[in-house]
């Protein structure tokens, strides 16, 4: 109705049609294969952490510098909160006693407090991508408890390794699109 009375069009501009010269499935698979070399070094890096943030880029609508910046800001924050939980549990985990119940209670309180802080950190515009923080959070725990990193069992080494590997995900996402060598084709009108 508004279109008829104002004379303005509500039709969005046509999106360019793009053809991939090399199928995305092939490019992404070749790139995924390279992570074996990234992780299979003496540093024992967690290659799957690349996949977490790579997928995150596509959940955000596809590779873009703006999306990468959001992830690059958010993921280390999540990993830092996870590091704090590990450090608290490592150094004060028996504060309530030696039993498993006491340790679990302490752990639960650490997670409650620090997860709440993580969520509130998401209110800061710079760190507002809360799913990105959880990508870093989960990636850190998997790296630390999975024994990955240049010094297995070292919470700080796990943090350095996971932050570096998560940072590569947006790069891989961009490469997975760029290396298809896309060309714009005329769309049939």
TrEMBL record:
Keywords: Membrane, Transmembrane, Transmembrane helix. The keyword Membrane applies. The keyword Transmembrane helix applies. InterPro entries: DUF1097. It holds the Pfam family DUF1097. The chain crosses the membrane at residues 26-59, 71-88, 127-150, 156-175. This is DUF1097 domain-containing protein.
């Amino acid at each position: 109705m508004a279109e008829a009375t104002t004379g303005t069009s509500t039709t969005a501009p046509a999106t360019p049609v793009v053809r991939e010269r090399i199928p995305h499935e092939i490019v992404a698979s070749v790139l995924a294969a390279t992570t074996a070399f990234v992780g299979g070094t003496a540093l024992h890096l967690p290659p799957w952490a690349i996949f977490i943030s790579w997928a995150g880029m596509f959940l955000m609508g596809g590779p873009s510098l703006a999306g990468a910046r959001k992830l690059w800001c958010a993921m280390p924050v999540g990993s830092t909160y996870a590091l704090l939980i590990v450090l608290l549990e490592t150094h004060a985990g028996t504060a309530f006693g030696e039993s498993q119940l006491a340790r679990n209670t302490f752990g639960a309180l650490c997670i409650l407090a620090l997860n709440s802080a993580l969520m509130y950190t998401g209110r800061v515009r710079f760190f507002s991508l809360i799913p990105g923080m959880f990508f870093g959070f989960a990636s850190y725990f998997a790296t630390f408890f999975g024994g990955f990193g240049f010094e297995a069992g070292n919470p700080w080494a796990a943090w350095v390794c996971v932050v570096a590997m998560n940072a590569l995900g947006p790069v891989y996402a961009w490469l997975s699109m760029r290396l298809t060598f896309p060309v714009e084709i005329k769309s049939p009108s």
